[in-house]
Amino acid sequence: MKKQMTLFALLSILLMFGYACSKSDDGQPDVQIDEKNLTDCPANANCTTIYQDNKEMDSLGWTKTGSKRLFTASVIYPGVTNKLYISVPMNSTSFSLGKADVLKGGLGWITACPACNMIGLKQIDGYAKGRKLSGDNNNDKWILEAKIIRQAIDGSSYKDTLYVKQYFYKSASSDVN
After folding, report:
1. Residue 8: CB atoms within 10 Å
2. How far apart are CA 68 and CA 144, in angstroms?
3. Domain ranges of the chain
4. Quick one: which of 76, 78, 41, 73 has its CA closest to 57?
5. Which of 26, 54, 116, 146 could bridge across to 128 with cysteines, CB 3.0–4.6 Å?
6. Are 123 and 148 in contact (CB under 8 A)?
7. 70-75, long-range: CB within 8 Å, 24+ apart, which pairs?
8. d(CA 96, CA 133)
9. Which of 14, 141, 147, 36 is nearest to 84 (CA)?
10. What's 60's DSSP letter?
11. What pLDDT, on the 0 to 100 scale, is given for residue 112?
12. What's the CA gap between 146 and 165, in Å, rounded?
């Protein structure tokens, strides 16, 4: 009887771990993002949320030919551009990235302002998750949610946070920067 109870307990534990660690049937992470409370484009800004296939981001914020799917969200004010980028494998239909990916550069936030007096910032935390909603290879619709936190490199306590939750569509152009 004791042997049967031990076997039953072991089997129950294995089943619980199996359900707790499950992924979707296609091996992709099961990412849930509600489609409510999408971020708005700020007043007086021009915003884009696009993705490109077979692209990557270089260290200066320019796109280049690569082997990834590159999502970019840009907020452009007169004289200032903020760009969030997220790089994921081409075969993914969903993804979930965390702090380790932020620190490795798989996702990030670039600010370009030639006439600004800015302090240096480094990425210290964040996450991004996304999933394909519909479409074929030429007209996919994705929803993404991302948050990047940057901190001053001069040792001060200054921090800045960028949050985006929006639909992304395939870029009509292959040369978008």
Report:
1. 10
2. 16
3. 30-170
4. 73
5. 146
6. yes
7. 71/130, 71/142, 71/144, 71/168, 72/48, 72/176, 73/47, 73/48, 73/49, 73/144, 73/146, 73/164, 73/166, 73/168, 74/46, 74/47, 74/48, 74/49, 75/41, 75/42, 75/45, 75/46, 75/47
8. 15
9. 147
10. T
11. 87
12. 6
Compute how many other C-beta atoms are within 10 angstroms of the C-beta atom of residue 7: 10
Kindly state the DSSP code that residue 174 receives in the 8-state scheme: S
Asked if residues 158 and 151 have their Cβ atoms less than 8 Å apart, the reply is yes
**Which tokens in the block code for residue 71?**
């999502």
* Sheet with 46-57: strands ordered across: 94-97, 121-134, 141-152, 159-170, 46-57, 63-77, 80-89, 107-112
Does residue 176 contact residue 148 with C-beta atoms inside 8 Å?
Answer: no
* β strands within 12-120, DSSP E: 46-57, 63-77, 80-89, 94-97, 107-112
| Virtual torsion, Cα 90, 92, 95, 98, nearest 10 deg | -40
Tens-digit pLDDT profile for residues 79-88: 999 999 999 9
Candidates 113, 131, 115; CA nearest to 28 is: 131
Q: Which amino acid is at 57?
A: M
Residue 11 DSSP one-character state: H
Q: How many CB atoms lie within 10 A of CB 36?
A: 6
pTM: 0.79
What confidence tens digit (pLDDT) does each residue in 87-111 have?
Answer: 999 999 999 999 999 999 889 998 8
